[in-house]
Amino acid sequence: MRTADDEDFSSFVAASSRRLLRSAYLITGDISQAEDLLQTVLERAYRRWPSIRRTDIPEAYVRKMLVTAAVDAGRRRRVTTTPLQTDLLPGRPDPAVESLPGRTALLDSVRELPPGQRAVLVLRYFDDLTEAETARTLGCSVGNVKSQHAKALARLRELVGNDRTPA
Fold first, then answer.
1. Among 25-29, 55-59, 105-109, 156-160, the least confident range
2. Domain range enclosing 85
3. pTM of the prediction?
4. Which of 28, 38, 12, 6 is nearest to 113 (CA)?
């Protein structure tokens, strides 16, 4: 790669890696897996950087690579549930969310969702993508995004509802 491409890629990583790591963590639920996933994706992106940088939004392209790699990895291994370590979550805490009762139950329930459904929720709610943008990122139809979204929310309602204790 040329020096200009190296410098451009380094700038991209400096500007985007924190957001991408947070997305990877929210999808995988494990900081070690998220770091490994992001490292793998950034290595792939580096090799293809001259063509990626010519896309409209390079971060969106790399995010798609991240989600695809996470979903593929989820299919290959057996998913185990471990408690979400919120103190390791990259980024700044949001006081409005941190104070919500049931936040822990909700996050634990999200970890029980299949990787594809978690990816849809992360892209829709954390990355604030539209259904069309989410479909483009995941490489599927808008109908599939709507279906996965509905299934994920129904399952979350079921899981969180089962965790509630009568007041």
1. 105-109
2. 3-163
3. 0.61
4. 28
